[in-house]
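Re: the request from the purification team.
They wanted to know what the chain is likely to look like in 3D before they choose a buffer screen. I agreed to run a prediction and write the result into the notebook, where they can find it.
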Amino acid sequence: MNTFWLKMAGFAVVVVVLIVLVNVFTGPMPTEQVQDDEQTVQQEQAEESASESQRESLEDRSSRRALERQQKSVPNRIDAMRQRGVVEQPSEPVRQKVQDLEIEDEVQAERLYQMAVTSSKIARKPMMTYKKMVDYCRQIIQSYPNSIQAEKSRQLLREMPRRDRKMYKVTNEEMGIGK
């Protein structure tokens, strides 16, 4: 009788060992975890360096470079949409002098801009709208008209499909397009 329970305990240990081995071999490879960790560290370092550079006197140059990089990294999907006529090709945007904001205002403007970007990504999904993105962009443009975030917001508005711009009555002035 004692051997029966001993056999059951041994069987339970074997099952647990098998489960652990299956998880080890089917889980993510250690190199993938290291790469993921390296990517997150690089992203965190990039975010930290971006926030530090915003406080320095070289803020204008780095922000303009980041804006240019962001404008260049617009997906090819938008270009294809422009060719089909879904998104119209914007005329040359009006360049305004970018003013330095106080740190609190800059943080608030950046927070609103990030919310606008997130709303823009959500609006691309079926059954979603661009309303929140337009509201956030308008709030940035009204509150911080000559900031870098206002320029980025104008770019977001220019990237909206034409039918949505008409629906929300986005003006050329809001998009930063001169007539």
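For the purification team: Residues 87 and 160 are 7 Å apart (CA to CA).
Please add any questions underneath this entry.
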